[in-house]
Amino acid sequence: MLIKEKSERNTLEMVSLEGLVPQDHLLRKIGCAVDFTHIYDFVVDLYCADNGRPSVDPVVLFKMVLIQHLYGIPSLRRTVEEINMNIAYRWFLGCLLNEPVPHFATISYNFRHRFSEDTIEKVFTWILFEAQKSGYLSPEVVFMDGTHIKANANINKKMKKAIPSAAKAYEEQLMQEINEDRMAHGKKPFDGNSGGGEDGGRETTVSTADPESGMFRKGDHKHCFAYEAHTVCDRHNFILDTVVTSGNVHDSVAFDALYEKVTARFSGIRIVTMDAGYKTPWICKRIIDDGGIPSLPYKRPMTKKGFHEWYKYVYDEYLDIVICPEYKSLLYSTTNRKGYREYKSLQYQCATCGTRHLCTESRGCQKTVTRHIWGDYIEQAEDIRHSPQGKESYRLRPQTIERVFADAKEKYGMRYTPYRELKRVSMWVRLKYAAMNLKKLAMWKWKAACRRFFITISVSVLKRIPAALLHNRGSLTVWKCRRHFFIYGQFRVEEIFRYRVRGARSR
Length: 507
What we know:
This protein is an alpha+beta fold. The chain has helices spanning 17-20, 26-33, 38-43, 58-70, 76-85, 87-93, 104-114, 117-133, 171-184, 251-265, 281-289, 347-351, 375-385, 388-395, 401-410, 422-462, 493-506, and strands at residues 141-150, 158-164, 201-207, 214-218, 222-234, 239-246, 271-273, 293-295, 314-316, 321-323, 329-335, 340-344, 368-372, 478-480, 486-488, 491-492. The strands form four sheets. Strands 1, 4, 5, 6, 7 and 8 form a six-stranded mixed β-sheet that branches. The chain has a five-stranded antiparallel β-sheet with strand order 9-10-11-12-13.
């Protein structure tokens, strides 16, 4: 039967926002998980106490930005439009149905001129501390990697620019150990402290729209200007820290800044799991010297095809020589400025060697093999790779750091950034990671509260069951099944309720 109902769009109703938002809505879970009044403590110094116009509530501004990141909304303008029409968003902000929300330009101005990187860092740390206080963090094993974020820059608007070579963090320590090694071999130490670095500068491609971004090349054809978010997470996918750099900065170069930040925040880190891009002598040395365990994969050797494999050249630590596949000795020659010891063969031996075409193409008939002065740490990392600890931790990478990057790009809109300049992109990434941590914290707290509620209800009901029904029914343990059914012996909760109803009616 067809029924036509009259549209009553102009009818006045008395409603409450509290009753219109579902009890299991994500924003309700987030509101119960943390106390947003802590944000006032972070921004109180940024406002005048007794002068000026009344400001927009900073908690509302931060909540609006969190809504943008939680739901992957691409812009602040679109976020304000969604808040105007979404009742759950208004409930989260504490705005009435007819109350105007702050203009998107107000949010943009505050996050550009008032809230600094330090303010965003405090918000990120506060959410992370809430997760740690609840017992959800597990920083004993951490996972480190980087992901590229496409910059807001046209690939066709570029120019060539010469930039000086950046000094490495371990440059002084490396030069000191190089000179000690040279002196131990009877060589003269180097002057200056340019160990590990390169003299002069290099020419690079720079964007004219966003000069702080870097050219990122993926494969032979695809290239764009990008930033890179170097990130650390734990085994539960909580993001512990991040460092944002230009897209042309290698992962191993950004390692020191990220490692120092995360170890200063969490002192109990035991295993650091990374990909092959981090497998350098310095990174292995630093982690091992700090008492940690570097979990790294196999790295393909960069040897020439058709020549002897690298493992056929064996280093003799006692004699400090390298033995070639024909069992000839390559003697120590020197230690160069990059920290590599050079071992060279005797020319008259190579001249008559039958496999010289598989060893070297040198006109002087001399083979040179290099070994870093920190090469022992690489060998220790190789031993760890074959250990049960190394295999188990590296097996978790697709479920942890790779999953974090996949969720950030697919669900939270981190595939490209609408902002320019490294400072603004860093703040944008840190706020996005804070929203991801906040959502996971809220979901876990909500599930734990539901679990405690159902256990309490089931135990209170089970205590009222006559003892005769529990006779010979097995263990008195209560546990949670896959579909949230709680079993006591052989009785399900719904069966117990049915029994109680039948018993009450029979009496």
